[in-house]
């Protein structure tokens, strides 16, 4: 599929990218090259290939999925600039 300057202009408009008129032919060639590369990728046989999230196989660390109260109120309140009676204290904004 060949990309012409009108298509490049439309894509730039949709992407909200300002492209000078004299740059449109070069942009169309770049789009054409990108689509050619995608067509090459579509020709690759991936039948039986497992999808991967990383080039190195590793297992994510997991923890037990249990409901707790957190039990970290003191640690959390240490981050607060002002804490009173076990809660975050904030300035009054409504009279």
Automatic annotation (TrEMBL):
It comes from Rubellimicrobium mesophilum DSM 19309. Keywords: ATP-binding, Ligase, Nucleotide-binding, Protein biosynthesis, Transferase. InterPro entries: Asp/Glu-ADT_sf_sub_c, GatC. GO terms for biological process: glutaminyl-tRNAGln biosynthesis via transamidation; regulation of translational fidelity; translation. This is Aspartyl/glutamyl-tRNA(Asn/Gln) amidotransferase subunit C. It catalyses: L-aspartyl-tRNA(Asn) + L-glutamine + ATP + H2O = L-asparaginyl-tRNA(Asn) + L-glutamate + ADP + phosphate + 2 H(+); L-glutamyl-tRNA(Gln) + L-glutamine + ATP + H2O = L-glutaminyl-tRNA(Gln) + L-glutamate + ADP + phosphate + H(+). Gene3D superfamilies: Glu-tRNAGln amidotransferase C subunit, N-terminal domain. PANTHER family: GLUTAMYL-TRNA(GLN) AMIDOTRANSFERASE SUBUNIT C, MITOCHONDRIAL. GO terms for molecular function: asparaginyl-tRNA synthase (glutamine-hydrolyzing) activity; ATP binding; glutaminyl-tRNA synthase (glutamine-hydrolyzing) activity; transferase activity. Belongs to the GatC family. Allows the formation of correctly charged Asn-tRNA(Asn) or Gln-tRNA(Gln) through the transamidation of misacylated Asp-tRNA(Asn) or Glu-tRNA(Gln) in organisms which lack either or both of asparaginyl-tRNA or glutaminyl-tRNA synthetases. The reaction takes place in the presence of glutamine and ATP through an activated phospho-Asp-tRNA(Asn) or phospho-Glu-tRNA(Gln). Heterotrimer of A, B and C subunits. It comes from the Bacteria. Its EC number is 6.3.5.-.
